[in-house]
Amino acid sequence: MRRVSPRLIALRAVDAVKVYVPFMLLQGGVAERLPQWLHLPWTLLVIYYSATRVQVLLFDWLTTRFAVTGDGISLQTGWPTRQVAFARWSEISALSIDQDLSHRLIGASRIRAVIGAEGREDLLLEAMDADQVARVRALYAEHSASGRAAAAAAESPTASAAGTVPGTLIYSASLRDKALISLTHAKFLLIIPFVLGAYNDLAEPLRLPSGTGLIEQVLSGDPTVLAAAVALAFAFGFVRASITFHEFRVSREGSRFVSTGGLFHHQAREADLSRVVGVRLSQNVLMRVVGCSRLSLVVDNARGEFRTFVVLPVATNDRARGLAHELMSADCEVAAPPRPRPGLSICAATVSTLVSVMLLWHGLPWFAASTLALGVVLADRWYAAFAPVALGSLSHRRGWLATRHYLLRLSSARSATSWHLPAGLRTSLLRVTVMDRRPVGLWGARTPTTECDELGDLILLTNQGANR
């Protein structure tokens, strides 16, 4: 094993400064208010805290070792309690390579190897130079399931002379896309915490109007001020979207998906198609109004900070659905779109509306508004259903305000549980648990009992076949 780059000391110095400088500014004001007999203990505490910051700068660099070989990645951390972790390339379901502003300034990257097994932590390598990043990416591509398949195809007599599949650009964020992202992802609302936070801190020394005063002026009802505030909010949202999705690209290289982008925080992520167990089409209220969707890959056991692999941050509904069907139809039959029954949703909305009217009649407007909001949320969540099971795939849709549509392989389902409704209805309440960043329960109200039994048998047979 080898020691990490000394650049890690610079990264830890930045982290220490973020905490140390505010502490030193605060301790000066505290020291002025302390009685005379506490000045010496307080000074010793400040000296001790400053000395520990020096230890923090060097500890990780002195105690961390790593190795990247053809077998996998090894990582050793800690002293005197030492932790050693090792992951084979076949256990790594995805790679996340990112550069925040500190990493970009020193020309280094942070590599996160997402382990495709529950109960195991991801491997994090910091302060990696460009050669080390290239080596990790090359070994991951070589030893992944798709890489082995591509190598076998290249050695086949029927393989093409090139023996590789050229990269295909799937998505590239344009100015129009960034404007749509600013609107549909509600980036324009971020101006409110900015005005109350960073701007408010700078306003007093620069003798500018306070953030609270600006918001009160906007809410005063002046149409000119309100129009200017709306225009400024959308401009702020567009700038935020342009920074986050700067040169954002998603491409397919052989059987791997690669996404890159970001101005100050540059990220590069890779996912093997063999570890993709489904796709997720999601729409919030603004997306439904505009007619756009967001498409993400559901990676096998990817969780935590890696989250879902985003392929299309925003795209027309037809394009998102077309790409979803193309990705899922490679080795399984795509299930038909589900059609939820609105009975329970109508019942929840009706009951909440009646209760809200009664509360409003008795002079309780806040309770009435809360009850009505709860009814809308329940009506939206109960508008859910599973599609008839197709060969090897599962389709689930939820929501009528904000929708979420899953197209999944049956191998992604962990369990299926059903509760039979009263006799004579011949329907059940169905819950299927899948892994999408965390265990997610997909509910289906009034699902035919025969479909519940069929789905449970198929999930059991699929999992038994996968474990053999």
Description of the structure:
It holds the Pfam family bPH_2. Residues 61-139, 248-318 form the YdbS-like PH domain. InterPro entries: YdbS-like_PH (IPR005182). With 468 residues, the chain is an alpha+beta fold. Among the domains are: 2-63; 175-244, no CATH class; 275-342 and 380-467, no CATH class; 343-379. Helices cover 45% and strands 28% of the residues. It is built from 14 helices and 20 strands. The strands form four sheets. It has a seven-stranded antiparallel β-sheet. Strands 14-13-12-17-16-15 form a six-stranded antiparallel β-sheet. A four-stranded antiparallel β-sheet has the order 1-2-3-4. A hairpin with a 2-residue loop joins strand 9 (249-253) and strand 10. Helix 6 (175-184) packs across helix 9. The protein is globular and about 80 Å long. Residues 151-165 have low confidence and may be disordered.
User: What is the helix fraction of residues, given as a range?
Assistant: 40-55%
Radius of gyration: 27 Å
**What's the story with the biggest beta sheet?**
7 strands, antiparallel
Oligomer: single chain
Which of globular, elongated, flat, extended, rod-shaped describes the shape?
A: globular
Q: Taking all residues together, what is the mean pLDDT?
A: 81
Q: Count of helical segments?
A: 14
Estimate what percentage of residues fall within beta strands. Answer: 25-35%
Number of strands: 20
> Poorly predicted ranges (pLDDT <50, ≥5 residues)?
151-165
End-to-end Cα distance: 35 Å
* Structural class by sheet pairing and helices: alpha+beta
**What's the arrangement of strands in the largest beta sheet?**
7-6-5-11-10-9-8
